[in-house]
Amino acid sequence: MSDGPPTMGVEEEFLLVNPRTGHASPCAEPVLARYRHHGPLPEGVRIHRELRLTQLEAASGVCTTADELRHQLTAARRVLAGAAAAEDCALLATGTPVGPGPATPPPASTGRYAEIDAAYGAVVADYEACGCHVHVGVADPDTAVAVVNHLGRWLPTLLALSANSPFDQGRDTGYASWRMVLQSRFPGSGVAPHLRGHDEYRRAVETLVECGALVDPDQTFWLARPSGRFPTVEFRVADTALTVDHAVLQALLSRALVQRALTDLAEGREAAPLSPQVAAAAVWTAARHGLSGDLVDAAEQTRRPAWTLVDELVAHVQAPLAESGDLTEVRKLLDAVRDGGTGADRQRALTDAGTAAAVRWLTAATVPAAHGTLLTG
To answer: Coiled coil where (predicted)?
Structure first.
Protein backbone atom coordinates (compact mmCIF):
# COMPACT_ATOMS: atom_id res chain seq x y z
CA MET A 1 0.00 0.00 0.00
CA SER A 2 1.08 3.60 -0.56
CA ASP A 3 -0.18 7.14 0.11
CA GLY A 4 -1.05 7.62 -3.57
CA PRO A 5 -3.02 5.31 -5.86
CA PRO A 6 -3.07 1.65 -4.82
CA THR A 7 -0.10 -0.45 -5.79
CA MET A 8 -0.46 -2.99 -8.59
CA GLY A 9 1.25 -6.07 -9.95
CA VAL A 10 0.64 -8.45 -12.85
CA GLU A 11 1.12 -12.18 -13.29
CA GLU A 12 1.40 -13.30 -16.92
CA GLU A 13 1.10 -16.93 -18.03
CA PHE A 14 2.70 -18.05 -21.31
CA LEU A 15 2.67 -21.13 -23.53
CA LEU A 16 5.80 -22.92 -24.73
CA VAL A 17 5.66 -24.46 -28.19
CA ASN A 18 7.83 -26.00 -30.87
CA PRO A 19 8.58 -23.03 -33.16
CA ARG A 20 8.30 -25.10 -36.35
CA THR A 21 5.29 -27.33 -35.74
CA GLY A 22 3.30 -25.34 -33.19
CA HIS A 23 3.03 -28.40 -30.94
CA ALA A 24 2.94 -27.51 -27.26
CA SER A 25 6.38 -28.23 -25.83
CA PRO A 26 6.84 -29.40 -22.20
CA CYS A 27 10.13 -27.53 -21.75
CA ALA A 28 9.26 -25.43 -18.70
CA GLU A 29 11.89 -27.04 -16.45
CA PRO A 30 14.92 -26.47 -18.72
CA VAL A 31 13.76 -22.92 -19.46
CA LEU A 32 13.46 -22.27 -15.73
CA ALA A 33 16.97 -23.65 -15.26
CA ARG A 34 18.54 -21.24 -17.73
CA TYR A 35 16.51 -18.01 -17.76
CA ARG A 36 18.90 -16.25 -15.35
CA HIS A 37 21.57 -16.45 -18.07
CA HIS A 38 19.51 -14.33 -20.44
CA GLY A 39 19.64 -10.98 -18.76
CA PRO A 40 18.89 -9.41 -15.39
CA LEU A 41 15.32 -9.08 -14.20
CA PRO A 42 14.08 -5.99 -12.35
CA GLU A 43 13.87 -6.33 -8.59
CA GLY A 44 10.74 -8.13 -7.52
CA VAL A 45 10.08 -9.94 -10.82
CA ARG A 46 9.60 -13.68 -10.31
CA ILE A 47 9.40 -16.61 -12.73
CA HIS A 48 7.41 -19.75 -11.90
CA ARG A 49 6.26 -22.95 -13.54
CA GLU A 50 2.53 -23.48 -13.98
CA LEU A 51 0.02 -26.34 -13.96
CA ARG A 52 1.40 -27.88 -17.17
CA LEU A 53 5.04 -28.18 -18.22
CA THR A 54 4.03 -26.39 -21.40
CA GLN A 55 3.46 -23.17 -19.42
CA LEU A 56 5.43 -20.58 -17.47
CA GLU A 57 4.42 -17.56 -15.41
CA ALA A 58 6.19 -14.23 -14.99
CA ALA A 59 5.08 -12.07 -12.07
CA SER A 60 5.98 -8.41 -11.75
CA GLY A 61 7.01 -6.84 -8.51
CA VAL A 62 4.88 -4.28 -6.68
CA CYS A 63 4.47 -1.28 -8.99
CA THR A 64 3.06 2.21 -8.57
CA THR A 65 3.18 3.56 -12.15
CA ALA A 66 2.39 2.35 -15.64
CA ASP A 67 6.00 2.97 -16.73
CA GLU A 68 7.37 0.85 -13.89
CA LEU A 69 4.97 -1.98 -14.68
CA ARG A 70 5.68 -1.82 -18.42
CA HIS A 71 9.42 -1.99 -17.77
CA GLN A 72 9.08 -5.07 -15.56
CA LEU A 73 6.75 -6.95 -17.90
CA THR A 74 8.91 -6.14 -20.91
CA ALA A 75 12.07 -7.36 -19.19
CA ALA A 76 10.42 -10.61 -18.09
CA ARG A 77 9.09 -11.37 -21.57
CA ARG A 78 12.47 -10.73 -23.20
CA VAL A 79 14.35 -12.89 -20.71
CA LEU A 80 11.87 -15.76 -20.95
CA ALA A 81 11.77 -15.58 -24.74
CA GLY A 82 15.57 -15.78 -24.88
CA ALA A 83 15.69 -18.75 -22.52
CA ALA A 84 12.92 -20.51 -24.44
CA ALA A 85 14.71 -19.99 -27.77
CA ALA A 86 17.86 -21.50 -26.29
CA GLU A 87 15.81 -24.64 -25.57
CA ASP A 88 14.35 -24.65 -29.11
CA CYS A 89 10.99 -23.41 -27.82
CA ALA A 90 8.92 -20.35 -28.59
CA LEU A 91 7.23 -18.26 -25.90
CA LEU A 92 3.66 -17.34 -26.88
CA ALA A 93 1.34 -14.84 -25.19
CA THR A 94 -1.95 -16.52 -26.04
CA GLY A 95 -4.77 -17.72 -23.84
CA THR A 96 -5.05 -21.15 -25.48
CA PRO A 97 -2.85 -23.18 -27.85
CA VAL A 98 -2.92 -22.30 -31.53
CA GLY A 99 -1.48 -25.72 -32.40
CA PRO A 100 -1.83 -29.31 -31.20
CA GLY A 101 -0.80 -30.69 -27.83
CA PRO A 102 2.65 -32.12 -27.05
CA ALA A 103 3.95 -34.62 -29.60
CA THR A 104 4.85 -36.96 -26.73
CA PRO A 105 3.01 -37.15 -23.39
CA PRO A 106 4.73 -35.09 -20.66
CA PRO A 107 5.65 -36.73 -17.37
CA ALA A 108 2.98 -37.04 -14.70
CA SER A 109 2.49 -34.07 -12.39
CA THR A 110 3.74 -34.14 -8.82
CA GLY A 111 2.82 -32.42 -5.55
CA ARG A 112 -0.13 -30.02 -5.58
CA TYR A 113 -0.44 -30.26 -9.36
CA ALA A 114 -0.96 -34.01 -9.04
CA GLU A 115 -3.74 -33.34 -6.51
CA ILE A 116 -5.40 -31.02 -9.02
CA ASP A 117 -5.11 -33.62 -11.79
CA ALA A 118 -6.64 -36.27 -9.53
CA ALA A 119 -9.48 -34.00 -8.43
CA TYR A 120 -10.62 -32.79 -11.85
CA GLY A 121 -9.71 -35.61 -14.23
CA ALA A 122 -10.27 -34.96 -17.92
CA VAL A 123 -11.40 -31.38 -17.28
CA VAL A 124 -7.83 -30.46 -16.43
CA ALA A 125 -5.86 -33.14 -18.31
CA ASP A 126 -5.21 -30.90 -21.33
CA TYR A 127 -5.81 -27.55 -19.62
CA GLU A 128 -3.17 -25.21 -21.03
CA ALA A 129 -5.14 -22.00 -20.64
CA CYS A 130 -3.15 -18.87 -19.80
CA GLY A 131 -4.41 -15.79 -17.99
CA CYS A 132 -3.28 -12.32 -16.99
CA HIS A 133 -3.88 -11.76 -13.27
CA VAL A 134 -3.81 -8.24 -11.84
CA HIS A 135 -3.26 -7.55 -8.13
CA VAL A 136 -4.30 -4.20 -6.64
CA GLY A 137 -3.36 -3.29 -3.08
CA VAL A 138 -6.09 -2.87 -0.44
CA ALA A 139 -5.88 -2.10 3.25
CA ASP A 140 -7.47 -5.20 4.81
CA PRO A 141 -9.39 -8.41 3.98
CA ASP A 142 -12.85 -7.02 4.81
CA THR A 143 -12.25 -4.09 2.47
CA ALA A 144 -11.08 -6.53 -0.21
CA VAL A 145 -14.37 -8.43 -0.04
CA ALA A 146 -16.40 -5.22 -0.19
CA VAL A 147 -14.39 -4.06 -3.20
CA VAL A 148 -14.95 -7.37 -5.00
CA ASN A 149 -18.70 -6.86 -4.58
CA HIS A 150 -18.36 -3.64 -6.60
CA LEU A 151 -16.45 -5.25 -9.47
CA GLY A 152 -18.89 -7.84 -10.83
CA ARG A 153 -20.66 -5.55 -13.29
CA TRP A 154 -17.40 -4.63 -15.02
CA LEU A 155 -15.57 -7.97 -15.13
CA PRO A 156 -17.17 -9.13 -18.42
CA THR A 157 -16.05 -5.88 -20.07
CA LEU A 158 -12.48 -6.48 -18.89
CA LEU A 159 -12.73 -10.00 -20.31
CA ALA A 160 -13.94 -8.72 -23.68
CA LEU A 161 -11.05 -6.23 -23.83
CA SER A 162 -8.56 -8.98 -23.01
CA ALA A 163 -9.94 -11.68 -25.36
CA ASN A 164 -6.93 -13.52 -26.79
CA SER A 165 -7.83 -17.20 -27.13
CA PRO A 166 -9.84 -17.91 -30.30
CA PHE A 167 -8.14 -21.22 -31.06
CA ASP A 168 -7.93 -24.55 -29.30
CA GLN A 169 -5.30 -27.03 -30.47
CA GLY A 170 -5.49 -25.91 -34.07
CA ARG A 171 -9.22 -25.27 -34.49
CA ASP A 172 -11.08 -21.98 -34.53
CA THR A 173 -13.60 -22.23 -31.68
CA GLY A 174 -15.72 -19.29 -32.83
CA TYR A 175 -15.15 -17.71 -29.41
CA ALA A 176 -13.03 -14.69 -28.59
CA SER A 177 -11.99 -16.24 -25.24
CA TRP A 178 -12.03 -20.02 -25.34
CA ARG A 179 -9.94 -19.90 -22.18
CA MET A 180 -12.96 -18.60 -20.29
CA VAL A 181 -15.07 -21.47 -21.63
CA LEU A 182 -12.46 -23.93 -20.37
CA GLN A 183 -12.31 -22.18 -17.00
CA SER A 184 -16.09 -22.29 -16.66
CA ARG A 185 -15.95 -26.09 -16.44
CA PHE A 186 -14.54 -25.82 -12.94
CA PRO A 187 -16.86 -25.59 -9.93
CA GLY A 188 -17.42 -22.13 -8.52
CA SER A 189 -16.14 -20.24 -11.54
CA GLY A 190 -17.43 -16.88 -12.75
CA VAL A 191 -18.37 -13.76 -10.80
CA ALA A 192 -17.98 -14.23 -7.06
CA PRO A 193 -21.14 -14.27 -4.92
CA HIS A 194 -22.03 -11.13 -3.00
CA LEU A 195 -20.48 -11.66 0.44
CA ARG A 196 -20.48 -9.61 3.63
CA GLY A 197 -16.98 -9.46 5.02
CA HIS A 198 -13.97 -11.71 5.01
CA ASP A 199 -15.35 -14.15 7.56
CA GLU A 200 -18.24 -14.95 5.24
CA TYR A 201 -15.84 -15.17 2.30
CA ARG A 202 -13.60 -17.58 4.22
CA ARG A 203 -16.55 -19.76 5.21
CA ALA A 204 -17.75 -19.88 1.59
CA VAL A 205 -14.35 -21.04 0.39
CA GLU A 206 -13.97 -23.57 3.21
CA THR A 207 -17.37 -25.00 2.32
CA LEU A 208 -16.29 -25.52 -1.30
CA VAL A 209 -13.14 -27.28 -0.08
CA GLU A 210 -15.19 -29.45 2.28
CA CYS A 211 -17.54 -30.34 -0.59
CA GLY A 212 -14.58 -31.48 -2.68
CA ALA A 213 -15.05 -28.76 -5.29
CA LEU A 214 -11.69 -27.13 -4.51
CA VAL A 215 -8.37 -28.78 -3.69
CA ASP A 216 -7.53 -26.09 -1.11
CA PRO A 217 -8.58 -22.53 -0.15
CA ASP A 218 -6.06 -20.99 -2.58
CA GLN A 219 -7.84 -22.44 -5.59
CA THR A 220 -11.06 -20.45 -5.96
CA PHE A 221 -11.96 -19.92 -9.61
CA TRP A 222 -13.82 -16.62 -9.12
CA LEU A 223 -12.86 -13.91 -11.61
CA ALA A 224 -12.04 -11.43 -8.84
CA ARG A 225 -11.27 -12.32 -5.26
CA PRO A 226 -9.30 -11.28 -2.19
CA SER A 227 -5.83 -12.72 -2.65
CA GLY A 228 -4.91 -15.51 -0.28
CA ARG A 229 -1.21 -14.56 -0.44
CA PHE A 230 -1.05 -10.77 -0.64
CA PRO A 231 -2.98 -7.77 0.73
CA THR A 232 -4.64 -7.30 -2.63
CA VAL A 233 -7.74 -7.78 -4.70
CA GLU A 234 -6.83 -10.21 -7.47
CA PHE A 235 -8.43 -9.90 -10.91
CA ARG A 236 -8.33 -13.26 -12.69
CA VAL A 237 -10.68 -12.45 -15.53
CA ALA A 238 -8.33 -11.54 -18.40
CA ASP A 239 -6.78 -13.80 -21.01
CA THR A 240 -3.03 -13.53 -21.06
CA ALA A 241 -2.22 -10.31 -22.89
CA LEU A 242 -0.91 -10.48 -26.45
CA THR A 243 1.27 -7.42 -25.82
CA VAL A 244 2.69 -5.61 -22.84
CA ASP A 245 0.44 -2.67 -23.68
CA HIS A 246 -2.64 -4.91 -23.38
CA ALA A 247 -1.43 -6.08 -19.96
CA VAL A 248 -0.80 -2.51 -18.80
CA LEU A 249 -4.31 -1.53 -19.94
CA GLN A 250 -5.83 -4.32 -17.85
CA ALA A 251 -3.77 -3.27 -14.83
CA LEU A 252 -4.67 0.43 -15.05
CA LEU A 253 -8.39 -0.24 -15.50
CA SER A 254 -8.35 -2.79 -12.68
CA ARG A 255 -6.60 -0.38 -10.32
CA ALA A 256 -9.03 2.39 -11.22
CA LEU A 257 -11.99 0.09 -10.52
CA VAL A 258 -10.59 -0.63 -7.07
CA GLN A 259 -10.03 3.09 -6.46
CA ARG A 260 -13.60 3.87 -7.51
CA ALA A 261 -14.93 1.09 -5.27
CA LEU A 262 -12.95 2.44 -2.32
CA THR A 263 -14.42 5.89 -2.91
CA ASP A 264 -17.93 4.49 -3.10
CA LEU A 265 -17.42 2.54 0.11
CA ALA A 266 -16.00 5.57 1.91
CA GLU A 267 -19.11 7.51 0.91
CA GLY A 268 -21.43 4.76 2.12
CA ARG A 269 -22.37 3.28 -1.26
CA GLU A 270 -22.48 -0.50 -1.06
CA ALA A 271 -22.70 -2.61 -4.21
CA ALA A 272 -26.04 -4.12 -5.16
CA PRO A 273 -25.96 -7.92 -5.63
CA LEU A 274 -26.07 -9.16 -9.21
CA SER A 275 -28.27 -11.95 -10.48
CA PRO A 276 -25.95 -15.01 -10.65
CA GLN A 277 -27.61 -16.16 -13.89
CA VAL A 278 -27.33 -12.77 -15.57
CA ALA A 279 -23.72 -12.41 -14.41
CA ALA A 280 -22.96 -15.83 -15.93
CA ALA A 281 -24.65 -14.73 -19.17
CA ALA A 282 -22.52 -11.56 -19.18
CA VAL A 283 -19.30 -13.57 -18.82
CA TRP A 284 -20.36 -16.04 -21.51
CA THR A 285 -21.30 -13.27 -23.95
CA ALA A 286 -17.94 -11.55 -23.44
CA ALA A 287 -16.15 -14.85 -24.04
CA ARG A 288 -18.21 -15.54 -27.15
CA HIS A 289 -18.00 -12.16 -28.88
CA GLY A 290 -15.20 -10.15 -27.33
CA LEU A 291 -15.64 -6.59 -28.55
CA SER A 292 -17.24 -7.54 -31.87
CA GLY A 293 -20.88 -7.64 -30.77
CA ASP A 294 -23.20 -6.95 -27.88
CA LEU A 295 -22.29 -7.59 -24.26
CA VAL A 296 -24.60 -8.06 -21.28
CA ASP A 297 -24.74 -5.31 -18.69
CA ALA A 298 -25.28 -7.49 -15.63
CA ALA A 299 -26.46 -4.56 -13.49
CA GLU A 300 -29.05 -3.35 -16.01
CA GLN A 301 -29.82 -6.90 -17.22
CA THR A 302 -29.76 -5.91 -20.86
CA ARG A 303 -27.58 -6.26 -23.96
CA ARG A 304 -25.57 -3.31 -25.17
CA PRO A 305 -22.85 -2.75 -27.79
CA ALA A 306 -19.46 -3.79 -26.45
CA TRP A 307 -17.77 -0.45 -27.03
CA THR A 308 -20.65 1.34 -25.32
CA LEU A 309 -19.88 -0.65 -22.17
CA VAL A 310 -16.15 0.04 -22.58
CA ASP A 311 -16.90 3.77 -22.77
CA GLU A 312 -19.14 3.49 -19.69
CA LEU A 313 -16.39 1.67 -17.82
CA VAL A 314 -13.97 4.49 -18.61
CA ALA A 315 -16.54 7.07 -17.51
CA HIS A 316 -17.09 5.11 -14.28
CA VAL A 317 -13.36 5.25 -13.45
CA GLN A 318 -12.49 8.60 -15.04
CA ALA A 319 -11.90 10.34 -11.71
CA PRO A 320 -9.44 7.78 -10.31
CA LEU A 321 -7.67 7.54 -13.67
CA ALA A 322 -7.24 11.29 -13.71
CA GLU A 323 -6.08 11.29 -10.09
CA SER A 324 -3.38 8.70 -10.80
CA GLY A 325 -2.33 10.43 -14.03
CA ASP A 326 -3.37 7.43 -16.15
CA LEU A 327 -6.38 8.78 -18.04
CA THR A 328 -4.48 9.85 -21.16
CA GLU A 329 -2.55 6.58 -21.19
CA VAL A 330 -5.71 4.48 -20.91
CA ARG A 331 -7.42 6.41 -23.69
CA LYS A 332 -4.39 5.91 -25.94
CA LEU A 333 -4.26 2.18 -25.21
CA LEU A 334 -7.99 1.80 -25.81
CA ASP A 335 -7.70 3.66 -29.12
CA ALA A 336 -5.04 1.15 -30.16
CA VAL A 337 -7.39 -1.75 -29.37
CA ARG A 338 -10.25 0.02 -31.16
CA ASP A 339 -8.06 0.42 -34.26
CA GLY A 340 -6.12 -2.86 -34.19
CA GLY A 341 -8.53 -5.23 -32.48
CA THR A 342 -8.17 -7.53 -29.51
CA GLY A 343 -5.62 -10.30 -29.40
CA ALA A 344 -8.34 -12.68 -30.59
CA ASP A 345 -9.12 -10.45 -33.56
CA ARG A 346 -5.47 -10.26 -34.52
CA GLN A 347 -4.92 -14.00 -34.12
CA ARG A 348 -7.99 -14.82 -36.19
CA ALA A 349 -6.69 -12.59 -38.99
CA LEU A 350 -3.92 -15.18 -39.42
CA THR A 351 -6.33 -18.06 -40.07
CA ASP A 352 -5.13 -18.65 -43.63
CA ALA A 353 -1.44 -18.37 -42.80
CA GLY A 354 -1.08 -21.83 -41.22
CA THR A 355 0.09 -22.86 -37.76
CA ALA A 356 3.82 -22.31 -38.34
CA ALA A 357 3.26 -18.76 -39.61
CA ALA A 358 0.89 -18.04 -36.72
CA VAL A 359 3.52 -19.23 -34.24
CA ARG A 360 6.15 -16.99 -35.83
CA TRP A 361 3.82 -14.00 -35.65
CA LEU A 362 2.82 -14.69 -32.06
CA THR A 363 6.45 -15.17 -31.05
CA ALA A 364 7.28 -11.73 -32.43
CA ALA A 365 4.16 -10.08 -31.01
CA THR A 366 4.81 -11.50 -27.53
CA VAL A 367 8.11 -9.67 -27.06
CA PRO A 368 8.32 -5.87 -27.39
CA ALA A 369 10.69 -4.59 -30.04
CA ALA A 370 14.04 -3.42 -28.74
CA HIS A 371 13.22 0.28 -29.22
CA GLY A 372 10.21 -0.02 -26.91
CA THR A 373 7.33 0.09 -29.36
CA LEU A 374 5.10 -2.92 -29.88
CA LEU A 375 4.49 -4.86 -33.05
CA THR A 376 1.17 -4.13 -34.70
CA GLY A 377 1.06 -6.30 -37.80
So the answer is: none
